[in-house]
């Protein structure tokens, strides 16, 4: 994979540890859900260190009054790509409880692997917010790229994308389709198999989160 200025890969022992647990086929649905949330929170801390609107307020400590920067309420919109992106929402809400949530429903056509959009509901005023698109799996990159384009078509100009596992081909596609969007991934896997699944990956994230298989 080329070196892209807008791709940030996390290299943290805690994240690596949790990804090992997440990959394990014996990890239960409950543990899988918790791990997705925990990894998302760790990624959020780092991914959102730039770009989050802050404002200066006065705080009265027991000793004196000081000025302090705080995060502007309701300045972030989380957009999970259904279904699996839903598993990442709470991991961000823990840190940004006032974040609104928009939903984009997409599934991959199993033969062509191209995404089809079946649902879209976004908060009013999203075009003025920092939009964080989340999906644990970035495989061919089709879903992420189309979701980001849909948001741009609605007027959003400040978008970040977070995935837990990315395949080189998918990361390259999103990085090149959207050079203005920062892409954060916890790990870059080897490749895709003939069915478009990431190797070594973790299987189908939606099925493992929601117990559908
Ligand atoms: C998975 C995953 C991504 C997409 C990634 O969803 O959650 O949205 O595939 O693949 P891509 O990068 O090749 O587009 P899927 O279509 O399986 O739907 P689901 O979450 O409802 O299971
Ligand atoms: N979607 C998944 O859930 N897993 C993959 O490996 C690829 C796409």
How does this model look, in words?
The chain is an alpha/beta fold. It is built from six helices and 13 strands. The protein has helices at residues 13-23, 29-47, 86-93, 142-153, 168-177, 205-210; strands at residues 7-9, 54-60, 65-71, 76-82, 100-101, 103-108, 115-121, 130-134, 137-138, 159-166, 182-188, 191-192, 198-199. The strands form three sheets. Strands 1, 4, 5, 6, 7, 8, 9, 10 and 11 form a nine-stranded mixed β-sheet that branches. The chain has a two-stranded antiparallel ribbon with strand order 2-3. The protein is globular and about 65 Å long. The model has no long low-confidence stretch (mean pLDDT 97). The site of 1-O-pyrophosphono-5-O-phosphono-alpha-D-ribofuranose has 23 residues, from strand 4, strand 6, strand 9, helix 4 and helix 6.
